[in-house]
Every structure is written in C-alpha cells, then in structure tokens.
Amino acid sequence: ISNSGISYFSFLSSNNQLETMKSVIFAAAIASAAAFAPAQTGKVSTSLNAFEEELGAQAPLGFYDPFGMLDEADQDRFDRLRFVEIKHGRVAQLAFLGQIVTRAGYHLPGDIDMSGNSFASFPNGFAAIGGPDSIPGAGTGQILLFIGFLELGVMKDSANGAEPGDFVGDFRNGYIDFGWDTFDEETKLTKRAVELNQGRAAMMGILGLMVHEQLGGSLPIVGEM
C-alpha cells in the first residue's frame, strides 16, 4: 500500500472519530438541556391540592411547603409530618419558656445532686449541659433517659393502652383534657390552629435564643445572654 493509500485511510479514520465525537457531544448537550427542562408538575399539584385546606395552612403564608416535603405525599406522610411538627412545637414552647424563667432568676429549689450543688449554681441555657460549668455527665444522662421514656411511652397518640386520639398529636390518653370534650368543633379547630402557630413561633424563637447565646449580649425580656 502506498503512502497516499495510508494517508487516505488515516483521513477516513480521523473523520469517523470526529463524527463520533460530534455525536457524543450532541447527545451530552441534549441530556444537559433535558436536565434543565421544566418538570412535569401535574401529578404533584394534584397531590398538594389535597393538603391546601388542612389545618395550619393559614394566613399570612397559606399553604407553604418550600422544601417540597409534601410532593406526591399521601395522607399517612402528611400525618407523620404534622405529628412531628406538633411535638417539636410543644418542646420548643417549653424550651423558650425555660430560657425566660431561668434567666429571670427563677430556679428549682434545693440541690441537683448529692454533693450539695444547687439548681441555681449552674449556668442558664445551653451552657447548663454543654459548658465548662455544666451539670455532671450523669445528670445529662438522666435527662436523656427521661426524654426517651417520654418519647417511647408517654408522648404518643395511644399511650398507656388508651384509644388513639381524636387528631394527630392528641396526647390526652384518657387523662387530663382541660374540658376539651366540652368544646364545639369550631372552638377545637381554633385552639389547634393557635397551638400550631405558637409552636412554629417558639421553634423560631428558641433557635434565635440559641444563636444569640453564642453571640453574647443582652436581649429585651430575656436578659443577659
């Protein structure tokens, strides 16, 4: 085969490789464009519509799901998220109230351990469990065990062998109900909506206090951080 023949076949081979590379680049471009194409939202919208009238979708935001946690969710998924929201809201309200009360100088009377350390002798806020002057590790362990007991045996819709509550997050369990059964349905919905709003505000509030605690300074009502 002459040099011209070799050059011809080399040209064909190079040309084929060039065409192959063009095809690969074109396919990659199509795939990239498809990745940024608008997603099909019909099915998601249908799923979300089922929750737009649920308790908690209220002014000023209405139905607000910025992270898409309810995309294609069913009722069980919604109930689970609502259960967690109510529980976290209740814990946050207690935490926020605890911050205000202890920083105002009110503490439990007596000693926290057998060594004679009083409740008032420990710092407030996160420093009580995570700072250099925090309570002993055994005390923190007891707190965690108590929380676990509440989580597994008390803070449930059907704890203590009781029938499931009237709604998700109903922890009455046949005990204290503060006259709940005497309210009409409209009053019950109003009180549940108030609890949701207060819980949401408390979650933001305790998060803000935790941040300010690290930054230091003083806050109105709460006091010195």
List its salient traits.
225 residues, globular, 6 helices, mainly alpha
Model description:
The protein has a two-stranded antiparallel sheet. It is mainly alpha-helical. Helix content is 55%, strand content 2%. The N terminus is likely disordered. The N and C termini lie far apart (89 Å). A hairpin with a 3-residue loop joins strand 1 and strand 2. The radius of gyration is 30 Å and the shape is globular.
Topology readout:
Blueprint: H1 3-35, H2 42-49, H3 75-103, H4 127-130, H5 137-154, H6 185-215, E1 218-219, E2 223-224
Antiparallel strand pairs: 1-2
Brief summary:
This protein is an all-alpha fold.
Tell me, what's the shape? globular
User: What is the terminal separation in angstroms?
Assistant: 89 Å
Radius of gyration from the alpha-carbon trace, in angstroms: 30 Å
As laid out across the biggest beta sheet, the strand order is 1-2
For the biggest sheet, the summary is: 2 strands, antiparallel
The class by helix and strand makeup works out as: mainly alpha
- Regions with pLDDT < 50 over 5+ consecutive residues? 1-14, 24-46
